[in-house]
Amino acid sequence: MSSNKYWKGVEELDQTQEFVSSNANEFSEGLPLEQVFSNDDSTRANRRDFLKYFGFGLGAVTLAACNKAPIKKAIPYVEKPDNVTPGVPLYYASSSVSNTEGFPVLVKVREGRPIKFEPNKEATYFGGGLDGLGHSALLSLYDTNRLKGAMVAGKRKPIAWKDFDKEIVTALNKVKAAGKSIAIVTDGSTSLLSQQAIADFSATYNNTDVVSYEPISYSGITRANNASFGKAIIPAYNFQNADVIVSFGADFLGTWISPIKFHSDYSKNRVPKNGKMSKHYQFESIMSLTGSNADVRVPMKMSNVGQHLVALYRELGGATPHKGMEVAGNNIKNAAEELRAAGNKGLVVCGSNNEADQLLVNAINMMLGGYGTTIDTTNYYMGQNADEAAFTSFLSKAKSGAYGAVITLGSNPVYSYSGAEDILAKIPLRISTSITMDETSSNATHVATDLHPLESWDIKQPYKGRFILAQPTISPVFEGRQASSSLAAWAGADVSEKNELSHAYKYAKKVFSSAVGGDFNKALELGVVENTSSPSVPSFNITGGEAADALATKKGSATELVLYQKVGVRDGAYGNTPWAHEMPDPVSKVTWDNYLTMSMPDAKANDISTGDVVKVTVPTGSIQIPVLIQPGQTKSTYGIALGYGRVLPDDVKNDLKDLGQNAYPLVDMKGGFADYTIGDVKIERVTGASTYEFGITQTHYSIEGRDIIREATLDEYNIDPLAGSHVHKPKMISLWDDYDYSKGHHWAMAIDLNSCTGCSACIVSCSIENNVPIVGRDEVRRRREMHWLRIDRYYSFEAPTKKDLELSIVHGGDQTVEAGEQMTKEKVMEAYSEASEDKSTAYNYYENVKVAHQPMMCQHCDNAPCETVCPVLATTHSSEGLNQMTYNRCIGTKYCGNNCPYKVRRFNWFRYNENEKFDYHFSNDLGKMVINPDVTVRSRGVMEKCSFCVQRIQSTKLTAKRENRKMNTDEFTTACAQTCPSNAIVFGDLNDKSSEIAQLYANDRSYHVLEELGVKPSVQYMTKIRNTKATSTKKAH
Amino acid sequence: MYSADIRQPLVTGGKTYSDVTADICRPIENKPTNSWWLGFSIGVVLLLVLAGTLAWTVWEGIGTWNTNKSVMWGWDITNFVFWVGIGHAGTLISAVLLLFRQKWRMSINRSAEAMTIFAVFCAAIFPLFHMGRVWLGFWPLPLPNAFGSLWVNFNSPLLWDVFAISTYLSVSLVFWYLGLIPDIATVRDRATSKARKYWYGFFAMGWNGSAKSWGRYEVVALILAGISTPLVLSVHTIVSMDFATSVIPGWHTTIFPPYFVAGAIFSGFGMVLTLLLIARHVMNYQDYITKEHLEAMTKVILLTGSVVGLAYITEFVIAAYSGYEYEQYAFANRMFGPYAWAYWTMMFCNLMAPQVFWSKWARTTPWFIFVISIVVNIGMWFERFVIIVTSLHRDFLPSSWVMYHATWVEVGIFLGTFGLFFTCFFLFAKFLPVINMAEIKTIIKDKE
Q: Are the beta carbons of A869 and B157 separated by less than 8 Å?
């Protein structure tokens, strides 16, 4: 160590007193604190600084207080997938989600998100339309309640598939070792993948029983067909070949078997051509959508359908006419005459699930010779063929403890089969494959969460020889696994993804080549493959006489309850799709609820009015439900819709928590089959229950004799094509020049009231295309549904007598009616009936109503009353005839809505997006994926309305422009026209003289609603022609 | 001086000039009475109701009201037309009667004008807050803007309303203030406290009572009266065009402009009577607001009530005669439909009730006049309700027929506007002379 000493200065060396004391301080020189803290000039000079700091502080606070700029995340593709261009939709052929048997659709995909179903126009056999539920079911893909992966009871979080499979395989092997059986309960799907997977599974576990379960049974038809010609099938019905259709309680346009296809077939003959159109008789107890379209609708008791069939059978000459068979006035006789004349172009269908009824229907159709033309048993229908007898015997076997495991493959018997829950609970291993915690899954021990159909591969066969290919249109949103792969995995196969190819894909390819054959990729592109054979006529083993005699003695019951399906939610499988609930029922216009339909005479006799809550007791059980008085309902019959009362997962929101009453427990299984007509009904009002208010979109049902829907009979139309349109109106002279549309396009729409059945598919299609908010039951009650397109439904009463009219004050009659009550025709009828002396027939008017449906949307008037009154020019006229809405400019005075004669404008009363109260899908990140990016989501306080799908017009125009060609009007159409299964809506360019719209505009049947107002609408309606006897044979002048 | 006893004196009680000043300045210079406090408190409470309900409306959306897909205007525009109508009497009294040299107007014109202004404030709330996006309420003004080629729609009657009402409000305000200047100067001159002297001095704008000042005052008053007179006709004519230019049956009626103007004067006088009868009683102004005044006003009510009644009947006859089913239905539905009670309330209040004024007793009995004035106010509210709601609830297509009933929010806003109105009125009565002292002094010795 050096002893050298270094010093900084002589002071240190000397260690002077001064140095020692200052060295003890950290800083050798003192800090200028006095200067800083003293009050002298130096601090006063800081005034400027103060102002600076103050200014800065104020500025900073102001900036900090400003709203944060919204953070918008736009994440670009790191690697752009092939064919995906942001902003350009892709279309994939696939199968509809809501139809278990399969229905061809195109899925519109934007940036990897399926946002809409569109009909697959290539699949001509199926008619190129879609229904409301089919559209609505899209939301099940973006359901926040979807399970996130494989679930085990008692655990909240999904577990790894590997562990899950291990657990299941161990358990299944234990079942096998114990000598017990495994049951697979399918949903009656026609999926070839499932069938193959089940076969593979059964090969490994040879103790497997397969039973098919569907909530709605058509086994009456299959059993009758088995008895008649040895094939337990539902045939394919060809309504397009039928000139005379007689339906006994079959709602074939609404809910029976395959209504979308029936719609398009049926409508082909409903527009008069060469003086002819088909004739449709409907005998039914509830007012169904089909009945509302019939030319002749006859109220009938469903429990009495056998008698009617026997009468028809005997009338047709099947046996010596029986005196006791006089039912339904002359209607059976007339129907028989027309059927006989039509021969093999006559078709009789029946909605009964009773084998005996269906046997007689078969006998009648055989007698007419319809097999081979109107009924095809060769390329028969494959869906919905579950037999409840098989399920019942499965349950009794399960009760005895024969099963060690049950796999419910997509089916949900706990919801729709009363008592299934307790019996299934006896099986120790219960595996469900549903995608949400439905009633069956919540009672399962394991949930092998399936993929959503839009994430899956599948091949379906709805009709023998007609295949539909389904392909994934989005990568799996959650960690589900396709059910067929799950079964394969438990059977020992390796189902992991290899080379980015999923097991299901390889499986589908394999199944395709073995069961279908041909070019897989081509088939995927088209979505459908047809390998049909020409129809043959089956040989009958049974004579109709026996069937008739068996039925002739069976009397209907005095009162009956008919369990039916509503067009909106059908069997209830897609209960968690708010669009379907918000879609008004085509007949009752009620949203979100089911109810007891009741006839007016019964309601009056029991002093019950709409909204009263009653207790309905039938031998199978009882239910408390509000009443809806339904015109057209047969006296002493009642109806309740199935498909309601779902118990959805706890975290569903708003109105989805309360979805009416479950009527499945009332289904009568006593006869060994599901009977949806139950006799011996007792109705008692629930004391103390307050009146229930329905969310109903149209509360007034009479057209008040106004010239809004024009109609004529076929005879009148044949004499004079202008029949029904001879309304004498003054010639309209305008003070102003009309718009000049001679250049460019002139958009217009034509709606044929003859083809339109009121099915309401267009309403849902429009809502999805245009991001129309769902507002819920309570807002509908407040008359604020947002639908841009509605279907007005009017009832008209059978020939009102002069006396009825005299009661109306408007027409200057007597004053027996209370003031305030008689201002509407419906009140006049009610008052008249009340005043009537014969109480037994007083309300018969309500049974015999005629129905007309009229789609109503913005009429895009040339002289639009809404346009002139907007103070800020938020709604204006385009050079192509569109009435445009500029949301950004709208300040919400609502003057336009008031001044609209058609009342089609809709106001955003609340903020419907990002609002807990209206959280149906607009407020959560998953649900928002379904929003159409081409259409603005409207803010609170602005007006909105039908835009004629202007986004489609624009994108088609732009495509044409980019390709440097003229746009064709048939390149696109509006969402409503596109989805219409009966092609009632036609949209196009009037300037294109060859277009369908231009020809329809020249049609004699065309008219404008409220044309006398001079607003010059761009929507034309076409007179409804009913195929009934003429009321006048004179040619109008 | 000789005077013929053809007319009763306009001011009774043998008032001297100093009596007038003392009487009219008394409420301003003394502590408020208990009845003032009571009235003012009720007004403020209702004003808070207004603030609360409006805040709720803006926070949640107009969905908190019960207007719906067919009846998009309900209580909101009913109240708007009601308040604008009430505002009519002020201008009529101050301008038209000034031009016609009706000197009896002098003791009532001040309060009538104040009422006009407050009523227009109340009215303005409704077109503003019935907008879905009230924060963009300035868009109907033709302001140059940076949004591009955006401009207002001069075809829209709502835009005409914007101009008509803002013109009316500004002219009425100027006219009222002008008339106040000499009286404010009087209060200033009598003021004892510094603050009063300063503020009244400020608002008196240096009024010195010189002959020159008076001369100019008279001329400006006449000019403003000339400007205001057409406004009496124009404002409600334009308000009526909101309805008359539409296509809705029951709205689309050419009779509306004169009918609305008559209705507005009718309702305005109804409200003036209500207020004056209260003020007269509470402030002991029986000598200034004499039975003569009441009688004159009841005559106006009788006349305009009959005009309105005639319009109701004419409307109905024309509808029946038109042969147009929608029009016929709209009017029949008013009388016999579900809102018939509103129609018959209107008919009773507006057509039947005022007919009692054929009787001299009815015209000169204050409590009875007060009852009838309330009846008239109710009737005129129902007139607007009937026109707006019954026309909309059942128009062309029966599928869209609906019923409409107000929610508590709508009722609250309506009650709240009374709060605003009375709060303003009580403040006015406390701080400003409710009778024009300067003018009344010209007629105290006058029997004309």
A: yes
Query: Do A784 and B69 lie within an 8 Å CB cutoff?
Result: yes
The reported pLDDT for the residue numbered A26 is 64
Which among A708, A809, A911 has the least Cβ separation from residue B397?
A708
- Does B322 touch chain A if contact means CB atoms closer than 8 Å? no
Torsion on CA atoms A187, A190, A193, A199, rounded to nearest 10? 70
Q: Using alpha carbons, list the distances in angstroms from residue A536 to A365, A372, A473, A1027.
A: 14, 6, 39, 31
CA distances to A321, A590, A689 from A299, in Å: 22, 22, 31
**Structure letter (DSSP) for residue A1025:** E
CATH architecture of B17-141+152-440: Up-down Bundle (1.20)
Considering only CB atoms, which chain B residues are within 8 Å of A591? Answer: none
Are residues A352 and A267 part of one domain?
Answer: yes
Which residues have CB under 8 Å from A58's CB, separation 6+?
none
Tell me the three state secondary structure of residue A175: helix
A469 forms beta bridges with A459
Q: Look up the ipTM and state it.
A: 0.91
Residues A899 and A1000 in one domain: yes
CB-closest option in B72, B152, B396 to A897: B72
**Which residue does chain B place closest to A944, by CA atoms?**
B69
Return the pLDDT at A810: 39
Taking only residues 962 to 981 of chain A, the set having a beta carbon closer than 8 angstroms to any beta carbon of chain B reads none
pTM over 0.90: no
A residues 787..826 contacting B (CB < 8 A): 790, 792-794, 809-810, 819-820, 822-824
Which of A816, A873, A888, A912 would you mutate first to test chain B, the one with the most B CBs within 10 A?
Answer: A873
Task: Spell out which residues of chain B touch residue A899, defining contact as CB-CB under 8 Å.
Answer: 246-248
pLDDT in tens, B357-375: 999 998 888 899 999 999 9
Range of the domain at A604: 557-696
- Distance, in Å, from the CA atom of B448 to the CA atom of B440, rounded to the nearest integer, reads 12
Question: Of the segments A163-167, A1007-1011, B50-54, which one has the largest average pLDDT value?
Answer: B50-54
To the nearest whole Å, the CA of A701 is away from the closest chain B CA by 7
* Residue A548 in domain: no
The residue of chain B nearest to residue A893, with distances taken between CA atoms, is B131
B248 touches chain A (CB under 8 A): yes
Q: What token pair was written down for A373?
A: 């033309």
Reported as a single tens digit per residue, the pLDDT across B275-324 is 888 888 887 787 788 888 888 889 989 999 999 999 999 988 998 888 88
The DSSP code for B349 is I
Least confidently predicted of A612-616, A848-852, B240-244: A848-852
Which amino acid type is present at position A254? G
| pLDDT value at residue A820 | 38
Domain boundaries, chain B: 17-141+152-440
**Residue range A116-128: average pLDDT?**
87
Residues B130, A903: C-beta atoms closer than 8 Å? no
Q: Which of residues 152-211 of B touch A (CB under 8 A)?
A: 152-153, 155-159, 162
Question: Is A767 within a domain?
Answer: yes
Cα separation values, B224 from A463, B117, B203, B219, B232, Å: 87, 15, 19, 9, 12
Position A898 scores a pLDDT of 93
pLDDT band for position A1037 (50/70/90)? very low
Mean pLDDT along residues A63-74: 67
The pLDDT value recorded for residue A771 is 92
CA nearest to A418, candidates A395, A437, A441: A395
pLDDT, residue A562, reads 92
Q: Specify the number of domains making up chain A.
A: 5
Find the CB nearest A891 among B67, B137, B242: B137
Residue A766 sits in a domain whose CATH number is 3.30.70.20
